[in-house]
Amino acid sequence: MADLDTPRSSYPVTRMRRMRRDDFSRRMMRETTLTPDDLIYPVFVLEGSGEREAVASMPGVERLSIDLLVEEARAVQRMGIPAMALFPVTPLSAKSLDAAEAFNPGGLAQRAVRALKDAVPELGIMTDVALDPFTTHGQDGLIDEAGYVMNDPTVEVLVRQALSHAEAGADIVAPSDMMDGRIGAVRAALEAEGHIHTRILAYSAKYASSYYGPFRDAVGSAANLGGGNKYTYQMDPANSDEAIHEVALDLEEGADMVMVKPGMPYLDIVRRIKDQFGAPTFVYHVSGEYAMLKAASQNGWLDEKAVVLEAMVSMKRAGADGVLTYYAKDIARWLAE
Ligand SMILES: NCC(=O)CCC(=O)O
Ligand SMILES: [Mg+2]
């Protein structure tokens, strides 16, 4: 009887399975790797001290007061994660039509930056530049009588907000508002005020996505927004060329890094941007993506560690230099195992 494994002439000389046969050769040809350097950890900041609140639609994610956040930052730094992104939970009493709390030097975000840079100076601190946590209506900018978000008056406030973050010591300011011209305006102001080292990570291709739902619960802006939407400034999920145009403008205006948001449904956009510009490109694995993976894992329908690592590698394979993800600490822990 013939050996079933004896090669026959009708079989190909190129056997793709040779390299997949053993762990060593699979590792040799692995094109994409994941390390803690690829992660940015987004966190929600609360007023008070000793305060810790669970986010119902994001099991495992908590809002923390500054003192607890400082402890968290030490752990994040020890795990080798390079940066943390701050999202303040603004009390209703501090919200207004003019969003003045956004640039309050004593505001929650600004105080958190100072405390974190003081306690853990090596950890990169990134701030969110947008007005939605500070407006009574939950839109990312100032509105006119008709409710339309006004571009240029909003940019003026964003510039003040970004400057207040840089003055507090933020390493990276990240405009997530999608107003036109804000990167150029923020860059000019930072240069004029001597903040020449402050990096700008532009949310360049931010889509009007339904995957942001749990985040709006986490920062408490869902109720303010009511049934409203952000279609007049965030991008239509149907568009791809428009993302290229947005990124070109932001890089021209002085962005150091660009971002695509959300992540997994938009990896074609990431690949196009990376191929076309070759600039540092980040992906936001958003709250809805986290919630989906978490819920399926909690039901026993998916293997959480395996599926999260696969999601991360997919984003890197698409061209991302790094990923903002609520899973950052879990991933760093899994990678160290
Ligand atoms: N600027 C941050 C968001 O708008 C949402 C992120 C998320 O859904 O995780
Ligand atoms: Mg733009």
TrEMBL record:
CDD domains, per database record: ALAD_PBGS_aspartate_rich
Root EC class: lyase
GO cellular component: cytosol
Pfam families according to UniProt: ALAD
BP GO terms, sorted: protoporphyrinogen IX biosynthetic process
Binding sites annotated in the UniProt record for Mg(2+): 246
Keywords for this protein: Heme biosynthesis, Lyase, Magnesium, Metal-binding, Porphyrin biosynthesis
Active site: 206, 261
EC number: 4.2.1.24
Protein's name according to its UniProt entry: Delta-aminolevulinic acid dehydratase
